[in-house]
Design a protein that fits this description.
Low-confidence stretches: none
Distance between the termini: 57 Å
Number of helices: 9
Shape: globular
Largest sheet: 11 strands, mixed
Mean pLDDT: 96
Radius of gyration: 25 Å
Structural class: alpha+beta
Number of strands: 24
Length: about 475
């Protein structure tokens, strides 16, 4: 191999945040067989480059909010300045995680975004935007740089990520690094490797279909391009577009974002994952729990973090969303170990799949993190969750967990409940809070057999707990 200078991944460049409390991976490229040494303060580790890549694990680091130099030495020396040690969170998903605090084309502004940006002078929070890079094959290459949070830089930060990190900072957690790894429109299978999909019989068809499309697409595109060029030369309209979408670059393509955006991050040392995705899987909710189980298992294996927390966001109400998808997300959060989810029934927008209400999303994720990850076990971090229902004397009595000091109503009237009898037809119902239960009835329905809450694309749902967190939707006739 040709001689090459020692290089380090941009994940470890100026203003980086390294994970505290565990052996911390640092890597880059160098000539074959070259010894590379990495130092941060008194911590030091060395390795020899193999296959053009070197990787070291610094011994467990102590959180430090004072910027220090990270020294990488081999045939040449590299110094990364102002490096902190704290917690690194991966902020992943599709457009609602990707959406930056700044204005976006054709989208309403994030609520109070200018006032919120003014609070962003927090130099112990940094963020790294991973470029949207769909690829056919896994890559180790990565571009980007760390940004120190300020009223100016925050405009290019994920809004959800910013509100999450700011809430943790205000709770005394930090320093904090956000690696923002999200791309609009992508499905869960976009972020899973080909091998991981093939290893699950129920999901293998996704990878096999992608393989076939990757082979077929170049010839189909070339044929269409020839016809389009000929039509243009003849002064005629171009033929209709290809019926097959680009299997790699299209926003719905499986696998390709894993190849270009997850693989180059491995094996970054992380504290946890915040995940806002699901809108593009709405058409097939039944496969979503298995997709998330597969994704979480693969990421935990690749990042060498068997108990890596996954904190998820429920898809917010929108006219084209579905309650079945929210149910699938809740099932995924139950099936994935060390995972939990926030409710967003009160944070949607019927006419916009990208609701501007990002502050409650980030702050509720921070509550989950404080409860599950930072050990604040007494902290109320969830809205009420369905625990069961009994049907007596023409009424449904619904029980809940996560009472948060008691049940409450967001607004003046308790809304969002429906009842059905033996015919399975659900009708609007009246509901009232009685102690730790909700009693539901409907005029003319004497023998209800099922109760639902928030079961619509855009429900009017006002149940919460006294901590102000909204209840989760449910159906007593559904799958737990």
């Amino acid at each position: 191999q040709l001689s090459a200078d020692v290089c380090v991944s941009p994940l470890f460049g100026d203003h980086a945040v390294l994970q505290a409390g565990k052996n911390t991976a640092v890597w880059g490229t160098a000539s074959e067989g070259e010894k590379v040494t990495v130092r941060l303060g008194e911590a030091e580790a060395s390795s020899v480059a193999k296959g053009g890549r070197w990787l070291v694990h610094l011994p467990a680091l102590t959180a430090n909010a004072t910027g220090r130099d990270l020294l990488i030495s081999g045939s040449n020396n590299i110094v990364s300045h102002d490096v902190l040690v704290g917690d690194v969170w991966l902020a992943a998903g599709q457009s609602n995680m990707e959406r930056r605090l700044d204005l976006a084309n054709h989208q309403p502004p994030i609520d109070n975004y200018l006032e919120e940006a003014a609070t962003a002078n927090i130099p112990t929070i940094r963020f790294f935007n991973v470029p949207n890079t769909p690829l056919k094959d896994p890559t180790l290459e990565l571009k980007g740089s760390w940004q120190v949070l300020s009223p100016t830089t925050v405009m290019s930060c994920s809004a959800v990520g910013f509100f999450f990190a700011r809430a943790l900072h205000e709770a005394g957690k930090g320093p904090l690094g956000l690696v923002i790894n999200a791309a609009g429109g992508t499905t869960a299978q976009s972020w899973i490797s080909r091998d991981a999909l093939l290893a699950v019989p129920e999901l293998a068809g996704i990878a096999k279909a992608w393989d076939a499309d990757v082979v077929a697409y170049p010839e189909l595109f070339a044929r269409w391009k020839t016809e389009a060029d000929a039509a243009k030369a003849a002064g005629q309209p171009a033929p209709a577009g290809l019926t097959m979408r680009d299997p790699i670059g299209h926003y719905l393509a499986p696998i390709s974002r894993y190849n270009g955006m997850v693989h180059p991050l491995i094996p970054l040392s992380l504290r946890g994952v915040i995940w806002y995705q699901g809108e593009s899987n709405t058409g097939k909710p039944l496969e979503y729990p298995l997709l998330m189980q597969t994704l979480a298992a693969e990421w935990r294996a690749k990042f060498d973090a068997p108990e890596l927390p996954f904190l998820m966001v429920m898809v917010a109400p929108y006219i084209k969303s579905s309650p079945e998808m929210r149910e699938a997300q809740m099932r995924a959060a139950k099936l994935v170990p060390q995972a939990d989810m926030i409710s967003t029934l009160d944070a949607g927008d019927a006419g916009d799949i990208h609701p501007p209400h990002k502050r409650p999303v980030g702050e509720r994720l921070a509550l989950l993190a404080r409860h599950h990850v930072y050990g604040e076990s007494d902290l109320v971090s969830s809205g009420p969750r369905f625990a069961g229902a009994t049907f007596v004397d023409g009424k449904a009595t619904v029980r809940f967990t996560e009472l948060g000091g008691g049940l409450a109503t967001q607004g003046d009237i308790l809304k969002g409940f429906t009842l059905a009898g033996a015919d399975g037809k659900f009708i609007p119902a009246e509901a009232r809070i009685e102690g730790d239960t909700v009693v539901v009835s409907a005029p003319g329905l004497t023998t209800p057999t099922a109760v639902r809450y928030g079961w619509a694309s855009v429900p009017e749902a006002t149940l919460a707990n006294r901590a102000g967190l909204p209840a989760f939707p449910f159906r007593s006739d559904g799958t737990p």
